[in-house]
Amino acid sequence: MTVRFDMRHLRAFAVTAEQLHFTRAATTLHMTQQSLSTQIRQLENELGVELFIRTTRKVELTAAGAKFYEYVRDIFARLDAAVEDTRRIASGERGRLRIGYTPTVGKGVLPEIMVEVHRRLPDLHVVTVEGWTRDVTSAVAEGRLDVGVARCAVLTPALEGITLMHEPLGAVVGVGSPLSNLDVIPVDELLGYLLITLPRDLSPGFYDRVIASFPMHAAEGRVHELQQLGHDTFFGDTFAHAEILAGNAFFVTFERHYPRMFEGFVWRPVSPPPLVGTDLVFSREGRSPSVDSFLEIATEVAKRRQRT
Fold first, then answer.
1. Tens-of-pLDDT digits for all 308 residues of the chain?
2. Which SUPFAM superfamilies match (predicted)?
3. Which CATH architecture describes the domain 170-273?
4. Where in the chain is the domain with CATH 3.40.190.10?
5. pTM of the predicted structure, to 2 decimals
């Protein structure tokens, strides 16, 4: 059945059904009583039923009118919800956001960002996935993730990025090493030790930043890339674990990555401190409002964190 009435007829009917008084309903709708009566009559003719019982003393809904009113109320409730949802999605308050992050970021600024995201955008459905920098940036470029949070991200033509903050790298050394007796380790003091770091294949930007900070280690071939990778990084790599514990090597990382250091090891700051950026990576095209909202919150959190 094809109907020939529009939202004006439904609004006129709903207000009249609520108030059961044509004069007051017409006033609410900012129209004449005659125009209101005409719209109600058009609606009744189109439906083929009477919706109201009209007498000189009162107006009542018919049984059909009462049932139709239930449907019309539901229509307007759904329409209001649709309008609200649409506006909130457009503002980035609702929808879905897929975030990829690297292990050190997961123990760094990201948890603070996520607390603020959940507080300010409670209706935004957020999915977070951990991965190495290469995998995170590739997933963002291919549209499988909406935003990536990584150290020293290498951008492709399909990606844009902003640097949230910089954090200093330090060195993990064995407690038996002479380096552990220093409160701050000068870079020159590390020259006689093997540098252990993450593989370039998985984190190329981070690896290059480390090598730029310790050029003599690279020149002398005193660099070892981890081979057994996991959340424990150097601790899970048999060779790296043994060499650092024996006092022959050091592992470069962030202090926050090990809030509780493994027994037998200590973290020490390095001077001058190699600074490493934490980057937000996103697509150059089709950026959603939820990504914009995330970028705004992340930037605010990072600025607040660096002031403390």
1. 556 778 899 899 999 999 999 989 999 989 999 999 999 999 999 899 999 998 878 899 999 999 999 999 998 888 877 777 767 666 566 678 999 999 888 877 888 999 999 999 888 889 999 999 999 999 999 999 999 999 999 999 999 999 999 999 999 999 999 999 999 999 999 999 999 999 999 999 999 999 999 999 988 899 999 988 776 677 778 999 999 999 999 999 988 877 777 889 999 999 999 999 999 999 988 778 889 889 999 999 988 877 76
2. Periplasmic binding protein-like II, Winged helix' DNA-binding domain
3. 3-Layer(aba) Sandwich (3.40)
4. 96-160+284-307, 170-273
5. 0.69
For residue 257, give the amino acid letter: H
Apex CA 210: angle with CA 236 and CA 192, to 5°?
80
Evaluate the CA torsion angle 8, 13, 18, 20 in order and state its sign: positive
The yes/no answer on whether domain 96-160+284-307 falls in CATH 3.40.190.10 is yes
Residue 148 host element (H or E):
strand 147-151
